[in-house]
Amino acid sequence: MAALLLLTGCATNAVPAPEPVAARIPTDTVPPAMAYLYGSAEAAALSEQAYNALTGYVRATLDKARDARGRLPHQRAEGTSPRWPRSAVLAPGATAATAETLRCGVLPPAVVLDMDETAVLNLGYEYNDARTGAVYDGKRWERWETGGADRVVALPGAVAAFRALRAMGVTVVINTNRSAAHAADTARALADAGLGEFRHGETLFLKGDVDGRSGKDGRRQAIAARYCVLALVGDQLGDFADLFNPPGPAPARGRRMLPSVAALRDRWGAGWFVLPNPVYGTGLGAGWDDTFPEGKRWSDDAPVEGAK
């Protein structure tokens, strides 16, 4: 995400007059990525599609796990059949080649979702980004976390999906990299968006919880110790497994291939549900060579009309 650059300082001790907002606006056109994600019917349809697929998958999973009396695994003795599928959370030490997931036992069911651009759209913050053309700054994001609760909206389909999941007896858990210091503000933003009540450490997990890291594997495994996580939902691949974001610079082309590795590809739409985010994140680092392989490039060699 971007952040506001405060331009200060001058040759004298006088305080410079504030720069008019209009002077900082780079263009009157909404940036294309933001226009798509926050303003297009196509992005809304993709969001509805993802949430419809999520609720359908969870409903089908619950139906398969019921016994003849309609009881789910957590409502009867361990070892009885039918059982839960394995968790959607990867086991510690899992790799892209193995992708082994945790066992559920008789834990109650849950779905774990990222928050920003997965459960809520940060309309207020991104409006400020679009109007200023600023770059990301942690302090400005912190001000947004504590002051922007009423300037978010739920993603299309999210409110209905959260209600449907809860009606099925499935706990909805948010796992976000918003700060643990602002847990109350984050819970309020979710509630203001119509997504219900969330409690820090129970159904709301934040950056710094469990292991103090920004990577989410530790938090996912802590959640999986309490619940059978039937599905994960996010807009960044790190919302599914930290193996997608190895330490150090990751070649974009190699990272691009990871979702299609045999052990991972069948998880998309079957326990892992990803939402589009062309505005920010690790998916935006590809260069020309990564995006357009040399052997697939085309050049129009037709003469330009009117050229001599």
Radius of gyration: 22 Å
Distance between the termini: 47 Å
With strands numbered from the N-terminus, the spatial order across the biggest sheet is 5-4-1-6-7
Number of helical stretches of at least 4 residues: 11
Question: CATH superfamily name?
Answer: HAD superfamily/HAD-like
Shape: globular
Average pLDDT score = 90
- What helical percentage do the residues reach? 25-40%
Characterize the main sheet.
Answer: 5 strands, parallel
Model regions low in confidence, pLDDT < 50 over at least 5 residues:
1-24
The SSE order reads HHHEEHHEHEHEHEHHEH
Structural class: alpha/beta
Number of domains: 1
- What is the CATH topology classification name? Rossmann fold
CATH class: Alpha Beta
Written description of the protein model:
With 308 residues, the chain is an alpha/beta fold. The protein has one domain (27-278): Rossmann fold, CATH 3.40.50.1000. The protein contains eleven helices and seven strands. It has helices at 21-24, 32-39, 41-65, 123-132, 138-147, 158-167, 183-192, 217-224, 252-257, 262-265, 288-291, and strands spanning 109-113, 120-121, 153-154, 171-179, 204-207, 228-234, 272-274. Strand 4 (171-179), helix 7 (183-192) and strand 5 form a beta-alpha-beta unit. The longest helix has 25 residues, at 41-65. The radius of gyration is 22 Å and the shape is globular. The termini are far apart.
Q: Can you summarize this structure?
A:
The chain is α/β, with parallel strands linked by helices and 308 residues long.
